[in-house]
Amino acid sequence: MSPEAPDPPVELVVKVDLARAADPAAHVTAVLQVVASSAGVEEVFPGLRTGASAGLVTVRLGGVADAKTRRACLAALEGDPAVTYAHEAKARHPR
């Protein structure tokens, strides 16, 4: 019998309005501090300040990211005026 593989971390994709937050990753970290303090936040394209991909941030909810935590994180992000959108990352299927 093989041990069960751990659940992959939940990933969220967040778009931050750069006119409202100068540092997108720091802003998302501050918003999530109460809900998920152990979330890993990383800017997708650091330093990019213009274009459609500017302000994109990935959030990794590791370990015990249950449905309640995931919903709370999304609600906190969607309620923030500097966040344009926040949703779960879609799974990539190999071609």
Write the layout of secondary structure elements.
Elements: E1 10-16, H1 24-32, E2 40-43, E3 56-61, H2 67-78, E4 83-88
Concise account of the structure shown:
This protein has 95 residues and is of the alpha+beta class. The protein contains two helices and four strands; from the N terminus they run βαββαβ.
Q: What series of H and E elements makes up the topology?
A: EHEEHE
Q: How helix-rich are the residues, as a percent range?
A: 10-25%
- Unreliable stretches, pLDDT < 50, 5 or more residues? none
- Structure classification: alpha+beta
Number of separate strands: 4
Count the helices. How many? 2
Walk me through what this model shows.
By secondary structure, the protein is an alpha+beta fold. It is 22% helix and 24% strand. The protein is built from 2 helices and 4 strands. It has helices spanning 24-32, 67-78, and strands spanning 10-16, 40-43, 56-61, 83-88. A 4-stranded antiparallel sheet has the order 2-3-1-4, with helices on one face. The longest helix is centred in the last third of the chain and has 12 residues, at 67-78. The chain is globular and about 45 Å long. The model has no long low-confidence stretch (mean pLDDT 86).
